Amino acid sequence: MSRYLKNRNVAVIGGGIAGLTVAIALAHRGAKVTVQERAPQLTEAGAGLQISPNAGRVLEALGLGAALDQVSARSAGVLLHDHHGKQVAALALAARRPGAAFRMVHRARLIEVLERGAREAGVLIELGKEVGEVLPDAPLVIGADGLHSIIRRKLNGVEHPFFTGQTAWRALIQDGSEDACARVFMGPRKHLVTYRLGGGLRNIVAVQERPDWAAEGWSHQDDPANLRRAFAGFGGPLPGWLAQVDTCGVWGLFRHQVAQRWHDDRLAILGDAAHPTLPFMAQGAVMAIEDAWTMAECLDRIDDQSAALARYQALRRPRVEKIVAAANGNARNYHLSGPARVIAHAGLRSLSRLAPNRLMGRFDWIYDYDPLAEAVS
């Protein structure tokens, strides 16, 4: 498999999903990879995420499919509800593509799978390693260091994201049910997404438009009573689920631009460092996993490192820009009110009943994409 990456020294800054995935992909191609993570251990704050088939193909190609199946739950698709709990539309995404896995997993469990995979591939993981302005002395330094990336700043200078006017809560509750769908409850100026994870847990992300705001990041704790108060008018199973919340995080949602420069001759970025996104397409982690495979393939198949990184950016940027734009659009669509909401929900109900494949076909470009089939050279 290895061509030009064999024995190349690579430093990866950040031991999250993006960093560990790219480290594994590079190591499988013969690179000598060191991951530097500032935290004293590889843990992941936050809660759940969805891994759709486009990213699942990468993880399976890296030999992690079976391990991921052990810690995740399979999703059959998405159910859209109004805020009273009445179903608006059903997207049977898994049935549309038999054999393709839609997985729902706790972030911490995915990090554990990736850490084992990285160590087994020979990746050196250095914990408690704070990287400042002085970068590792390696021929290639990859920034997988998230929203406040040092490497992005070196490539693009200081940038200023803006607050969207939306604040999100994230929580976990116990759930031993066999509910196999992600569910979206849509109300005026707010919505809630929930799905079951492996290990008897349910993930809840609730978003509300409000004039005040919280800072970015998931470590800001809030009183669960504030979450319950914000969604007190929602029906269906939500009151019962929200009653179980005993701790929750809150953060403000900010819009970031896709980075203009993803690389120079020695530095490169991927994942949130390159293209942070709002969470309304469940593709943030997925895009990072796609990035990792494409970056490794380009570096392995194109001799000149700068040309390889340019090819990586050329392949990835149009796709991630489209996904980020789709997430921005959902931020509006989920929060409709008044006549616009009535019309939109009626249209979704009609499509779901009369032309379900047409409705689901809107997402084929996301889920049917195969990073492994991309012609990188």
Write structural notes for this entry.
The chain has one domain: FAD/NAD(P)-binding domain (3-Layer(bba) Sandwich). It is built from 13 helices and 16 strands. It has helices spanning 17-28, 53-61, 65-71, 93-96, 107-120, 150-156, 224-230, 238-243, 284-301, 305-333, 338-354, 356-361, 364-367, and strands spanning 9-13, 32-37, 48-51, 72-74, 77-82, 87-91, 103-106, 124-127, 140-143, 162-174, 181-187, 190-197, 201-209, 221-222, 248-255, 267-269. α9 packs antiparallel against α10 (305-333). The chain is globular, with a radius of gyration of 20 Å. The model has no long low-confidence stretch (mean pLDDT 90).
From the spread of the alpha carbons, the general shape counts as globular
Strand content: 15-25%
Biggest sheet, spatial arrangement of strands: 6-5-11-12-13-10-15-14
Average of pLDDT: 90
Structural class: alpha/beta
Oligomer: single chain
Radius of gyration (CA) equals 20 Å
Number of domains: 1
Low-confidence parts, pLDDT < 50 over ≥5 residues? Answer: none
Q: Give the CATH class.
A: Alpha Beta
How does CATH name the architecture? 3-Layer(bba) Sandwich
Can you identify the CATH superfamily? FAD/NAD(P)-binding domain
Number of helices: 13
Mind describing the biggest β-sheet?
8 strands, mixed
Helix content: 25-40%
Q: H/E element string? A: EHEEHHEEEHEHEEHEEEEEHHEEHHHHH
Topology:
Elements: E1 9-13, H1 17-28, E2 32-37, E3 48-51, H2 53-61, H3 65-71, E4 72-74, E5 77-82, E6 87-91, H4 93-96, E7 103-106, H5 107-120, E8 124-127, E9 140-143, H6 150-156, E10 162-174, E11 181-187, E12 190-197, E13 201-209, E14 221-222, H7 224-230, H8 238-243, E15 248-255, E16 267-269, H9 284-301, H10 305-333, H11 338-354, H12 356-361, H13 364-367
